[in-house]
Amino acid sequence: MTAARITEVDVIDIRFPTSRELDGSDAMNPDPDYSAAYVILRTDAGDGLEGHAFAFTIGRGNDVQAAAIAALRDHVVGLSAEAVCADPGSLSRALVGDSQLRWLGPEKGVMHMAIGAVVNAVWDLAAKRAGRPVWKLLTDSEPEWLADQVDYRYIEDALTREEAVALLRKGKDGSAGRELRLLANGYPAYTTSPGWLGYSDDKVVRLAERAVADGFTQIKLKVGADLADDVRRMRAARAAVGPDVRIAVDANQRWNVAEAVEWTNALAEYAPYWIEEPTSPDDILGHATVRRGVAPVKVATGEHVHNRVVFKQLLQAEAIDVLQIDAARVGGVNENLAILLLAAKYGVPVCPHAGGVGLCELVRHLSMFDYVALTGTTEDRLIEYVDHLHEHFKDPVAIVNGHYVAPTAPGFSSEMHATSIEAYRHPGGAFWVADAAGLTEPREGTNR
Amino acid sequence: MTAARITEVDVIDIRFPTSRELDGSDAMNPDPDYSAAYVILRTDAGDGLEGHAFAFTIGRGNDVQAAAIAALRDHVVGLSAEAVCADPGSLSRALVGDSQLRWLGPEKGVMHMAIGAVVNAVWDLAAKRAGRPVWKLLTDSEPEWLADQVDYRYIEDALTREEAVALLRKGKDGSAGRELRLLANGYPAYTTSPGWLGYSDDKVVRLAERAVADGFTQIKLKVGADLADDVRRMRAARAAVGPDVRIAVDANQRWNVAEAVEWTNALAEYAPYWIEEPTSPDDILGHATVRRGVAPVKVATGEHVHNRVVFKQLLQAEAIDVLQIDAARVGGVNENLAILLLAAKYGVPVCPHAGGVGLCELVRHLSMFDYVALTGTTEDRLIEYVDHLHEHFKDPVAIVNGHYVAPTAPGFSSEMHATSIEAYRHPGGAFWVADAAGLTEPREGTNR
């Protein structure tokens, strides 16, 4: 076992035909085909364990994303499986620090998401080898080891290693009790399923009512294409769920700064809880202006924020009320640890982005760690839930009474069924071959 | 001619073995292999004109960059050559706005540089069809048309179309006289050739002395690996050039914020003119802190700034004294027009990044436009010059008395010799085939 090496990095372009249902439609993304640039790390340990993970994309360009993951192969093949699983942070730093690949970012876009996929695959492998889910691997770790998993380059002015250790030590107080509560009650979720822009008002109302009946205390609507439509849908949704259920709204970067303030205030009558992605994810100062202009409506962003340096500034500039990590946008678990620590230090709640392909499966691990062993609270914290494509995963999410159930299977819950991988490989998988031959039909919804 | 279509988008992975000379070595990039993900737009016009351009990378990952350009093919093939050349801005917006590809950025990294390459190839084609160099095509354009070439999304809080038109109208005043002066005297340059980190002190001194003899009034040294080395090299360079030649220093993102302030101040005795890339290019607030901490040394950045939204904030936050555009990092000429307009509005001088492969060739067009028809001045403005790889270009830069000569050949000067493309194609070109067979040797310098 100690001599085991990583022997292969398989990369697979997997695409699901979600655009046919308008699942996932919003003001900027009218027709996404949810896709995964999927990676499998294989070893010669003989234990049958593999590390699985992926970068999430929405269709075109998934091949580019896969090529970026393949470009990391030489950094990974031949590494000691034991060493890399004992310290994913060193690999993370080596990948981010490759001086030639760094030019393609640095630490952003296609190349950084590729690093995130590989790093997350290492965490999947490490957790499987440890026989524990990733959230439990994290909560069981020593504060000093966890603090060493973070790259402080470019964030030391906001968070030092010493501060990280102190936060993590404090997080250990009472963690055993919180772990039991997590296992008993799960972690709060909110649902976006009612609110896709392509849905009719009737469907929005029907799904919003069902969400409340299912125990959700917050839903989310997509906005930003047409103000009159947004007002009408928001009024209908508010009438359907009543005054006590939070309704977040999400503009998916549709607006300029001034427009974001005006549009959000035009919806104020229906008490939106937060406005999400009001403008460019790069516009730190713009978000700060929007926040000042729309209070008491909160400002949320993060699913397209490309690294810890931008999150650092969003916090320093008091630009956001809600920080939305994404499991597959930044450089993997290690960078998300940095971001969770930054949020904890600045006292801003983290409400992860999820949905897509497998993002719910992954990100719950990070929030559950945050609750058990970092901030110690779920107050004003919820994980997004979207009822998409879970059937393709071996360890899919389960929602009970509006809460994510804590996963107990070893790993990062990032592994798809072999049958799904084979069917949806693009362009050679069975579904796509049949599709090209005209043998598939639009279906009404998956899992809905 | 009016019916001509774009018929092909050829993408070629071209790499030069620059790492063997330590040309281009700095604190973050010890061994770059300067490379180009090269694109050729072909038409059926029958006039023999093609649009050439490229994304610049430093070696590994150039294949990923090439794949990203190829992913844009379907947006371009079949377009009217006339229409796209008459309005590159519409294509630029269509490429940036592809909702699925947008997920891979948005507007950053590999995918955005790919868009920049395609957009720049359109400008090359447009200028060739117009029989003028790009700088002249720009200076001859109407303010309203130029203003329409800019995408104001996410920058309207800093620059409106109306403000852009006003700046461009003002730029027309006296432009005929400035054009004559430009053709007679060229545009000021500074040189980085003396200062690569891998060079010995003797080589630094020898090249610095030669730079002054050649008429340069500013040189640049790489710093950031070792403070004692930097102090020694800076002292030697200052002694070599005397007090009146500006010496810029460049840390290539090596530092955290506090470290940047300390290190720069430790070099203050030798009067560095600017500190370039002191920290992460994403750290707008960090640059503002550094600027306050190192004055009167100026702060410069931009070669890795990924789009106009970040430049906007660097200006809004008063984080930089010198703005460094790059011809091949952002979304092409159109986004660089936006950035030049922002800089003009905020009164910050633009000193472009150049070097690499062909960056000098391209970016001079943008500064020359800025001088003739936008800001109307070259005060405190210089274009970086590095004596690398120009021999591969059909319309290479020429430097006379420390000034870039204005190019007069039609196009964007972005076209390589067919023999260079063929020899340095990776991995199948003649050089790389010979190299793989052990038949190439390290050479002392190209063009030095």
Tell me about this structure:
Two copies of one chain form a homodimer. By secondary structure, the first copy, chain A, is of the alpha/beta class. The first copy, chain A, has a domain at 171-404: Enolase-like C-terminal domain (TIM Barrel), CATH 3.20.20. Chain A is 43% helix and 14% strand. Chain A has helices at 62-70, 73-76, 81-86, 88-97, 99-102, 109-130, 134-139, 143-148, 161-172, 175-185, 201-213, 227-241, 257-266, 284-294, 308-316, 333-346, 359-373, 418-424, 430-436; strands spanning 6-15, 35-43, 51-57, 187-195, 218-222, 246-250, 272-276, 298-301, 322-323, 383-385, 399-400, 403-404. In chain A, a hairpin with a 2-residue loop joins strand 11 (399-400) and strand 12. The radius of gyration of chain A is 21 Å and the shape is globular. Mean pLDDT of chain A is 95; it is low at 444-448.
Computed over alpha carbons, the radius of gyration of chain A is: 21 Å
Put simply, the count of helices of chain A is 19
Largest binding interface between chains? A-B, 60 and 60 residues
Estimated share of beta-strand residues of chain A: 5-15%
Largest sheet of chain A: 9 strands, mixed
Which shape of chain A, going by the Cα principal axes?
A: globular
Count the E strands of chain A. 12
The CATH topology label of the domain at 171-404 in chain A is TIM Barrel
| Unreliable stretches of chain A | 444-448
CATH class of the domain at 171-404 in chain A: Alpha Beta
Oligomer: homodimer
| Approximate helicity band of chain A | 40-55%
Structural class of chain A: alpha/beta
The CATH architecture name of the domain at 171-404 in chain A reads Alpha-Beta Barrel
> Average pLDDT value of chain A?
95
